[in-house]
Design goal:
CATH class: Alpha Beta
Strand order of the largest sheet: 6-7-8-3-9-10
Structural class: alpha/beta
Distance between the termini: 44 Å
Largest sheet: 6 strands, mixed
Number of strands: 10
Order of helices and strands: HEEEHEEHEHHHEHEHEEHH
Shape: globular
CATH architecture: 3-Layer(aba) Sandwich
Mean pLDDT: 80
Bound molecules: adenosine-5'-diphosphate, magnesium ion
CATH superfamily: P-loop containing nucleotide triphosphate hydrolases
CATH topology: Rossmann fold
Number of helices: 10
Amino acid sequence: MRSNCDISLNGAAGAAGDFPVGTGSASCGTGGGVLVGASKKMAGDAVGALAGSPGGLSDEIFRVENLTMAYGDYVVMRDLNFSVKRGEIFFIMGGSGCGKSTLLRHMIGLLKPAKGAIWYMGKNFSEASDDDRAGMLRQFGVLYQGGALWTSMTLAENVELPLREFTNVSDSDAADIVDLKLSLVGLNGFGAFYPSEISGGMCKRAGLARAMALDPSVLFFDEPSAGLDPISSHRLDELIVQMRDSLGATVVVVSHELASIFAIADRALFLDAGSHTQAAVGSPRELADSDNPAVRIFMNRGVDPRAKEGSRL
Ligand SMILES: Nc1ncnc2c1ncn2[C@@H]1O[C@H](COP(=O)(O)OP(=O)(O)O)[C@@H](O)[C@H]1O
Ligand SMILES: [Mg+2]
């Protein structure tokens, strides 16, 4: 039944379940277009109300403070400090196995910090009440590494799943929302297709439609272009920007695709597997001129612009 990857309903709430949340009874409200406006307004109101609160300056959606992440005794990363601003496209970069997906799982509340804290809209995830946490999780849409569609369901059924799970919308409203989401990602008319009948790029876009089903304020992508050809990857980048611009969503992308980073990232965080902490955070241009040679050389495709002849890694 399960496809080649994990399923996320509206992301965090439906995922692996290592963090109990009571989102099942939450109600989404009403039809497609209204939902989009509602979540945008909610995000704005909540952020506006936070001025001066301990965890959030007005333009910060996330603040990660002195975060140490560990599995048992194994410390994956320590002393992470960065913020994600409202409406930006924020990349998390770093070598394979350095902890990018682990960080994403912390940011959506599936894993608890070993030390430090993660603030979302001024609230500390770990200290939030179950109700507050459920409300926070409902605002996240996640596209997990690998894609995440149920192969035995049509695209429409896949997109409809979170609506069925987390809302009380009527059948006709659900159908309208599904049509809207599929058309937003350029899959108008493909609702009756099964994942096996469409290309990898289209599967990714359908996964994005499902991640957006509940109109999240924040969209998370774990290596969205993995396995895609350059043209599909470029189209997905364009779609991510389009979602951010039209829905007012904040986007967090795990990726080390330099073409994507330079094309769409506002800022990026560079995790260093060797020192188990962050090496740099900043705009792609700042990172390309970082004082940290590993970051600078990576961002310049293996060539150090500060070296006379250009030294290759
Ligand atoms: N559930 C887990 N239990 C124990 N170790 C894990 C678990 N998930 C990941 N790891 C380890 O944590 C490190 C970071 O993994 P991950 O966050 O998946 O890296 P990345 O996404 O950057 O490739 C790796 O060494 C991985 O083997
Ligand atoms: Mg990963």
